[in-house]
Amino acid sequence: MREIIFDTETTGFDPASGDRLVEIGCIELLNRVPTGRTFHAYYNPQRTMPAAAEAVHGLSDGFLRDKPLFSHGVQELLAFLEDSHLVAHNARFDFGFLNHELKLCNLPEVSMDRMIDTVAIARQLHPGAKHSLDALCTRYGIDRSHRIKHGALLDAELLAQLYIELTGGRQIGLGLAQEEEKLVGNMELAAEAAVRPVRPVRVFTASAEELERHAAFVATLDKPLWLEEA
């Protein structure tokens, strides 16, 4: 099962009011295990960066000025995403910006059926608790000491670890280890059987003395059923 963990950085909170996507980071998982494949890109939003947004992610107008437009890199992004499920924290926010950019490119939007929201999972597991990425990383012992500002790829890397924990990460690993141990054991038994010497079939036949003693015992029985006439 292939899944993509992703995060975005933007100029604000609402694409309908003119806010744009400026960074996306993606992590590939296969069967809940990171493969090492990633996708990361910055985009020129074609508008100024509000000070409040820059304070969150540190992406300035000067830094983004020479970055490509989203439309110029969209096919590379879509090729990485393929048709996999997409996992994000507060996923409707990220899906909203991604689909807005796709719409501006006259491309089909990503179906919401592909969305997996880790906030929704965390709310089910820990009702009433804090569900921010920072709070959940603390709960699950995920090191985020290097997270000074928000960054799409960095946050996606943290979210990948969190998602694995939220979906039973340690138990999944234990199960795989047990299955591997069982497989190795079965292979060892098969190898042992392959070199085991073949012995001739043993024949168990009653001796004449044993047959005589058996007949004498049967003669003492009172009307045994198998001797009665039908």
From TrEMBL:
EC number: 2.7.7.7
Entry cofactors: Mg(2+); Mn(2+)
A GO CC term assigned to this protein in UniProt: cytosol
Positions annotated to bind substrate: 7, 9, 57, 155
Keywords attached to this entry: DNA replication, DNA-directed DNA polymerase, Exonuclease, Hydrolase, Magnesium, Manganese, Metal-binding, Nuclease, Nucleotidyltransferase, Transferase
Stored SUPFAM superfamilies: Ribonuclease H-like
Molecular function (Gene Ontology), one example: metal ion binding
Chain sites annotated for binding a divalent metal cation: 7, 9, 155
Primary role: DNA polymerase III is a complex, multichain enzyme responsible for most of the replicative synthesis in bacteria. The epsilon subunit contain the editing function and is a proofreading 3'-5' exonuclease.
Subunit text: DNA polymerase III contains a core (composed of alpha, epsilon and theta chains) that associates with a tau subunit. This core dimerizes to form the POLIII' complex. PolIII' associates with the gamma complex (composed of gamma, delta, delta', psi and chi chains) and with the beta chain to form the complete DNA polymerase III complex.
Stated name of the protein: DNA polymerase III subunit epsilon
Gene name as annotated: dnaQ
